[in-house]
């Protein structure tokens, strides 16, 4: 029987605003690089970063909970001008955070 995947906990937020700025830039770069640069990518990155910052300021450090919050809150975002949806954005945020923490996405640390 395989072992359950352990939760990934981010370090406590020391400067959520700075984390949000980093995330916004990193996500915007990822969005532009993944398909084609679109004006809506900036807005998507801003919105995802706002959700992330608010969650971090409320003390959320669990990566899974952060991803669920982004999926849930991005459901109300109008993606009609984009190739993306809320799940792609939340997964990209997760990947960017895992990369920044030095995790191998396929296999853990």
| Radius of gyration over all CA atoms, rounded | 14 Å
End-to-end separation in angstroms reads: 21 Å
How are helices and strands ordered from N to C?
HHHH
Helix fraction bin: 55-70%
Strand content: under 5%
Backbone structural class: mainly alpha
Largest sheet: none
Descriptors for this entry?
109 residues; mainly alpha
Structural write-up:
The protein starts with 15 loop residues before the first helix and ends in an 8-residue tail after the last helix. The model has no long low-confidence stretch (mean pLDDT 92). The protein is an all-alpha fold and 109 residues long. The protein is built from 4 helices and no strands. It has helices at residues 16-34, 39-57, 63-74, 86-101. The chain is globular.
